[in-house]
């Protein structure tokens, strides 16, 4: 069984910063692409950023230049540094990882439980 656990959410004023972390645990063989998604009330879940095992990144247009995704492969951990936060960034943020595990040897998408980010104006 693979688990993803997020941390680092909270309440911040507009213009502030937060750093989200996501730690993967379990019988992990390898982690391919990882990413952060978010879902605001009444809206669909949307991609925020992804990063491949080789370090290639993709960002949503709305966060380019403000957010940075990174990963620490040796620790099976990923991060999302969020700067210049705006009220429209308010959402539940979820981490996602495509994992090859001992118990599931084909790549499978796992999700964290979500962490709330609230940006006040």
Largest sheet: 7 strands, mixed
Strand content: over 45%
**Span from first to last CA?**
40 Å
H/E element order:
EEEEEEEEEEE
* Average pLDDT metric: 96
Rg from Cα: 14 Å
Count, helices: 0
Helix content: under 10%
| Estimated structural class | mainly beta
The total count of strands amounts to 11
What is the overall shape?
elongated
Low-confidence stretches: none
Could you walk me through the main structural features you see in this protein, from its secondary elements to its overall organization?
The chain has 121 residues and is mostly beta strands. The protein contains no helices and eleven strands. The strands form two sheets. Strands 2, 4, 5, 6, 9, 10 and 11 form a seven-stranded mixed beta sheet that branches. It is elongated, with a radius of gyration of 14 Å. The chain starts with a strand and ends with a strand. The model has no long low-confidence stretch (mean pLDDT 96).
Helix and strand topology:
Blueprint: E1 2-7, E2 10-13, E3 18-26, E4 28-39, E5 46-51, E6 57-59, E7 67-72, E8 77-82, E9 91-101, E10 104-111, E11 115-120
Parallel strand pairs: 2-11
Antiparallel strand pairs: 1-3, 3-8, 4-5, 4-9, 5-6, 7-8, 9-10, 9-11
Task: List the keywords.
121 residues; mainly beta; seven-stranded mixed sheet; 0% helix
Give a short summary of the structure.
This protein is an all-beta fold and 121 residues long. The chain contains no helices and eleven strands.
